[in-house]
Design brief:
This protein has twelve helices and 31 strands. Strand 22 and strand 23 form a beta hairpin. Helix 6 crosses helix 10. The protein is globular, with a radius of gyration of 23 Å.
Length: about 500
């Protein structure tokens, strides 16, 4: 619902704005760009982490003191960057996001009851925004079926000074189509959208760059007033019409920013040619050996020509164990198909990152797209395989990997969309954590997906799900069945042709 006061102000502003800038939408200052954005507004913020964020507009919004904002953003940025600046300065009343990221301020404000938080699966968030811009009030999706997203009961606001919930998320309506359950999600619209593009013409046609496209085009379509912060402005007619990513009809103001930080959250480089002593390990050699053992076995599940999504952590190690002549097209949910390795130091590009906010390179034939299209690929079942980590997996194939109530709130990111897509799902993880079982009769943590896992690979064993049973299919060399039983929190069936890896 639009607030009546904000709507009247914006409409009046639009009449003057359209009349004044009939042939050019360019404004000279960020203050002009944000005219009309008042307290209590809903603001759609483009970007993914720190990639493709409108840095100048965010800082200007902080400086002008606007408060009680509802911010719609994939995540909270960092403590000193992106939406995190608004959070740190007390400007935000509510966040609608899919992932808290590495921002301790975000988590602290939420867990202390100072901030409302609506957590939304990343693909659902992109589609809700896309629907808002397309005039579609609601839609059905398989993402989140059987989880707190469907059932409700997730704390939107924690009571100040306690762990009790003051506001809880509401259950979703559901329906069955062709024998499969779906839940109803409502569109998201904003009063303002603040987006970042590489280039604009004076009419407001936009061109994005690499993975900095992400949520920006979707956000731009779904607001009453869209402001584009760009690196370059060219005269109308200068852009190749076939290469325009977002038509000018969606853009109301264009501002040429300056002095971008172009930060990358997690700097990782390809050091394969360096001497081992020059590469400082992030973790113990024993821990790394376990992770690599799991990744090496998981690499055997890859087939030439596959389209694959790899989660963060252990899955990112898999490519190093593939044959050099095998071609796998890796998809990143922030908007890229055809990811390559990490870059050499000095060759990184802040507009080219993976879902873990790490710099990457391109492979021949790669392409870029916006977030809603990325998750259309995923939700539509166009990927062959998803490999991701987990906190827990049940003997029925349920998976939990996004929250520890009252302690750790990561957010589901794109995981719910990936596991609910119908594509094959492999979980790679350590068999136990701090001497606690991770493979259980029932998950004790909130679910990411229900009955969606096809295979589990740990340093001890490979389990497969067949005919409703958890089957021990392979065992690590030197490990006994009794040891696997001891380290597993549920019963399982041993395959007749048990193999060793």
């Amino acid at each position: 619902m639009w607030r009546s006061g904000a709507l009247i102000t914006t409409r009046a502003l639009f009449r003057g704005f359209k009349k004044t800038f009939a042939t050019s939408k360019v404004v000279e200052t960020p203050e002009q760009a944000l005219t009309g954005l008042g307290d209590g507004s809903t603001v759609l913020l483009g970007g993914f982490g720190l990639c493709g964020i409108p840095e100048n507009l965010i800082q200007a919004l902080v400086d002008r003191g606007t408060k009680d904002l509802t911010i719609v953003s994939d995540n909270g940025g960092t403590a000193d960057g992106g939406p995190g600046l608004l959070l740190r300065n007390g400007r935000v009343k509510k966040m609608i996001s899919s992932f808290l990221g590495v921002n301790p301020v975000f988590s602290k404000l939420y867990l202390s009851g100072e901030l409302e938080l609506e957590l939304v699966p990343q693909g659902t968030l992109a589609e809700r925004i896309r629907a808002g811009g397309a005039g579609i009030p609601a839609f059905y999706t398989p993402t989140g079926v059987g989880t707190l997203v469907q059932k409700g009961g997730f704390p939107v606001k924690v009571a100040n000074g306690t762990k009790a919930s003051e506001i809880m998320s509401k259950p979703r309506e559901s329906a069955v189509f062709d024998g499969k359950e779906f839940i109803l999600e409502r569109a998201i619209k904003g009063d303002f959208a603040l987006v970042k593009a590489r280039k604009a013409d004076t009419l407001g046609n936009l061109v994005f760059h690499r993975t900095a496209r992400n949520f920006n085009p979707d956000m731009a379509t779904a607001a009453r007033c869209t402001v584009a912060e760009v690196e370059e402005i060219v005269p109308a007619g200068s852009l190749n019409p076939d290469e325009i990513h977002l038509p000018s009809v969606y853009v109301d103001r264009v501002y040429q920013g300056k002095n971008w930080a172009h930060r990358i959250e997690n700097l990782v480089f390809d050091r394969s040619e360096e001497q081992p002593s020059a590469v400082a390990p992030k973790e113990s050699s024993k821990e790394q050996a376990i992770r690599e053992k799991i990744a090496k076995r998981a690499a055997q599940e890859m087939k030439d020509g596959m389209y694959v999504n790899l989660g963060i952590g252990i899955p990112t190690l898999i490519p190093k164990f593939l044959p050099k002549n095998m071609r796998i097209s890796y998809q990143s949910e922030n908007g890229m198909l055809g990811m390559g390795n990490y870059p050499k130091q000095g060759q990184e590009d802040s507009d080219l990152i993976n879902a873990g906010k790490e710099p990457i390179t391109e492979t021949p034939g790669c392409c870029y797209f916006q977030s809603s299209q990325s998750f259309a690929m995923i939700r539509g079942g166009h990927l062959d395989l998803t490999v991701l980590g987990a906190m827990q997996v049940s003997k029925r194939g349920d998976i939990a990997n996004w929250v520890v109530p009252g302690k750790l709130v990561k957010g589901m990111g794109g995981a719910m969309d990936l596991v609910g897509s119908g594509s094959r799902v492999i979980v790679v993880m350590k068999h136990t954590a701090k001497n606690q079982h991770k493979i259980l009769e029932e998950c004790t943590l909130p679910l990411t997906g229900q009955g969606v896992v096809n295979e589990i690979i740990t340093e001890l064993a490979v389990f497969k799900f067949a005919k409703g049973e958890l089957v021990l299919a392979e065992i690590a060399e030197g490990v006994s069945i009794e040891e696997v039983q001891k380290q597993t929190g549920c019963g399982f069936v041993v395959a007749n042709d048990l193999k060793t890896f």
